[in-house]
Amino acid sequence: MDSRHLLTADQARAARALLNWSRVRLAAKANLSEMTIAVLENGTRKPRPHNITAIRKAFEDAGIVFTSEGSSSLARPEGDSGLVTDNRMWRGRQRKA
C-alpha cells in the first residue's frame, strides 16, 4: 500500500500534539470536517484513503516527518522551532478576523 494512505490514530493524535493543533484546525488545514478527524482518531470506522492522504499532507506541510522506523513513528525536522511560532501567528490572525 502507498505510504500516503497510511496514518494511524496514534500518529494523528501525536502529530496534532506536536503542532499544538485542535481537531478544528487540522480539519481546516486538510479541508475536511472535524467529524472526519474524530473518526480517524477515535477509530469508530476506517476513513477513506483520500481523507487520510489529506490529513497526512496537512501534517507534512506543517513540518511533520513520518518515518519508516515503525507504524507509529514520526519526527520533527531537526532544528525546527518554527512550528510553535507559526501556531501563535495563526491564532493571532484568527482573532483579528
From TrEMBL:
GO molecular function list: DNA binding
InterPro entries: Cro/C1-type_HTH, Lambda_DNA-bd_dom_sf
Superkingdom per UniProt: Bacteria
Pfam families tied to this protein: HTH_3
Name of the protein this chain belongs to: XRE family transcriptional regulator
Organism listed in the record: Mesorhizobium jarvisii
